[in-house]
Design brief:
Elements (H helix, E strand, L loop, with lengths): L3 H8 L13 H12 L10 E6 L2 H15 L11 E8 L5 H18 L3 E5 L2 H4 L3 H9 L6 E10 L21
The chain binds flavin mononucleotide (FMN).
The site of flavin mononucleotide has 8 residues, from β3.
Length: about 170
Amino acid sequence: MSNQVIENILSRRSVRSYKDTQISDKALKLILKSGEYAPSGMGKQSPVIVAVQNKDTLTKLAKMNAEIMGSDSNPYYDAPTVIIVLADKNARTHVQDGTCALENMMLAAHSLGLSTCWINREYEMFNTDEGKALLKEWNLSDDLVGIGALSLGYSKGEIKEAKPRKENYSIIIK
Ligand SMILES: Cc1cc2nc3c(=O)[nH]c(=O)nc-3n(C[C@H](O)[C@H](O)[C@H](O)COP(=O)(O)O)c2cc1C
């Protein structure tokens, strides 16, 4: 049986090397919309999605993340777009809500021929004075906490095959 949605899920891979070419606004908007249409606990829509393409802000985010990681390299792999997902900590399911938005956007990007990688450490980044100042600069509530981010762009290299899945990953109880 062939099913494009399932094919898209099975063939998505994390990409860690990007071309400088920026993605189109049309593609970005479709990806963001896919994030917005993710499910959320009690339909509260707790996430806020911030797409960053401004070079100075990308450099700042990379520096903040690298400091937490304790590394000199760019944790966003020099992708031309970075999508940050924050969520309202007052919503009981804010972590799950943000995670659903991230996964929707990874799959949407892949279906459009674009590549992503989930990048961690946004919770710590937006829990610092510098992170809180960025929220203020973006006119966002300080009730928001970082859930995760995506590097987004055109893949530079070959896309690797998925690792085999572990034994008994799923079980069916009838
Ligand atoms: C919660 C989470 C955090 C992750 N953090 C990072 C990260 O900080 N940097 C990175 O390069 N990849 C990160 N990844 C990507 C994983 O390494 C990747 O999904 C995994 O190796 C499986 O590869 P695949 O996505 O190609 O199937 C993260 C993935 C998840 C789900």
